[in-house]
Specification:
EamA family transporter, single chain, 12 helices, 288 residues, mainly alpha
Length: 288
């Protein structure tokens, strides 16, 4: 069953990138992240009451709560970096780097969770790294404002991947002794606090009045897609190995590339398409 949840997570995560890209086109990325987190929070707590796990809150241990908070903090940092990178670069540029977090996740799973990688996983990691490199389009102008902009989205994308890897490991530890929907809902509170804390610190809340109806719609839809992805992801993570669940979730890059072509008209070059094939092939090898 965890396998179905993992693929469900990949589907909704792929949709999230496109919906969010459209939603933040005319909106500050930090403000958009804070707003969409409200949708995720409401949806996650709705699921808690649907399954009735709210009655187990008083049995949560201090250790579980600590790791849920740390996981939520890592998620908040990853989101803020990811959507800033998404605002500065294209979906097909940012997504491969963010999905490469699987490499660091597998390493951390080996170090802290005792999940030993196989030979196939080792080959998969090499293919994944090479594919990610090929999907990073090289620009002719690497100096001046254009070059600075390119380097900026790249830095944010790399940071997003690092924090995403930490999220998976911390989340895996945090949900071991708690119902997955409740764990997701609790950690979403942390993400919400971090996101809105940054918005108020930067005084970006004043920009809410300038958000158009289309942006509101897609920010809301991206939050809903994220909520569905999270619920599937952490349910899969609770029953399956992190080193297996995470690679399947990263197959969302296929959904993202397809949707980016349909809705954003972002086409892959021959180099990037080759990289995509390597990423998918490497990810599938990780499952062995």
């Amino acid at each position: 069953m965890w396998l179905l949840y993992a693929f469900g997570s990949a589907l909704f995560a792929g949709m999230t990138s496109i919906l969010a890209k459209i939603g933040i086109k005319n909106t500050d990325s930090n403000l958009a992240t804070a707003l969409r987190t409200i949708v995720v929070l409401l949806f996650s707590w709705l699921m808690v009451f649907v399954v009735g796990s709210q009655h187990t809150i008083d049995s949560i241990s201090a250790r579980t709560l600590l790791f849920l908070i740390l996981s939520g903090a890592a998620t908040g940092a990853s989101w803020l970096c990811y959507f800033r990178a998404l605002q500065l670069g294209t979906v097909n540029q940012v997504t491969p780097i963010d999905k490469s977090s699987v490499i660091l996740t597998i390493l951390l799973a080996f170090l802290f969770l005792g999940e030993v990688p196989t030979l196939f996983m080792g080959i998969g990691i090499v293919l994944l790294g090479l594919g990610t490199y090929l999907m990073i389009e090289k620009k002719a102008d690497s100096t001046g404002a254009a070059g600075t902009r390119r380097r900026t989205w790249l830095i944010y994308a790399v940071l997003s991947a690092i924090f995403a890897a930490l999220t998976s490991i911390l989340g895996k530890i945090g949900i071991q002794d708690i119902e997955s929907n409740l764990g997701t809902a609790i950690r979403t509170i942390v993400v919400l606090i971090i996101a809105w804390g940054i918005v108020f610190f930067q005084k970006k809340y004043t920009l809410m009045k300038d958000i158009d109806k289309k942006s509101w719609l897609f920010i809301g839809l991206s939050g809903l897609a994220t909520g569905l992805s999270w619920l599937c992801y952490y349910r899969a993570l609770q029953d399956g190995k992190a080193s297996l669940v995470v690679p399947i979730d990263k197959l969302s890059i296929v959904v993202t590339v397809i949707f980016s072509y349909i809705f954003l008209r972002e086409k892959l070059s021959a180099r990037s398409f080759t990289g995509l094939l390597l990423v998918v092939g490497g990810t599938l090898l990780l499952l062995f």
